[in-house]
Amino acid sequence: MRTKDNLRRHDRVVNDAIRRPTAHVDGIQFIDSRRGGQLLLYQGNSFTRNKVCGKRQYWVCKDRSGGCRVTILTYESSLIKIRGEHNHPTKFRYVEEFIVKTNRGCFLMAYDHKFHKKRERGSRVDWTCSRRKATGCRAAVTTHDHIIIRRTNKHNHR
């Protein structure tokens, strides 16, 4: 249980970190969720906004229902503090180097399979398995700014 002294000490640490611009770490990305909210992507994991206090935003891992207790504090889009360790593998991969462009379009090589571009909506791209027509494969991938944010890995072939 936190006492008033512990809370004050915690606030002092956070306030000191906010005043020091070197306390934040680069590498975070904000994207829009399907429901119109905002998600934070950091080191292959996604976070949902839990609380807003002025310019401070508190984020929790999206796998919180699976027991993951990682939290992130940001201040004006800069990462200030990370607490905890993930109890699951990372979910997102940077895939720009796996996108192959040809004179007939482009395709994505991911998870040992080839995916064709189905639809592009701004910086989001939906990809479907290249064997979809031949085998009826339902596997699909969604990328946002070259980061895989969703996949359904239901291949019915090798």
TrEMBL record:
It comes from the Eukaryota. It holds the Pfam family FLYWCH. GO terms for molecular function: zinc ion binding. Keywords: Metal-binding, Zinc, Zinc-finger. Gene3D superfamilies: 2.20.25.240. Residues 30-88, 103-157 form the FLYWCH-type domain. The keyword Transferase does not apply. The keyword Metal-binding applies. This is FLYWCH-type domain-containing protein.
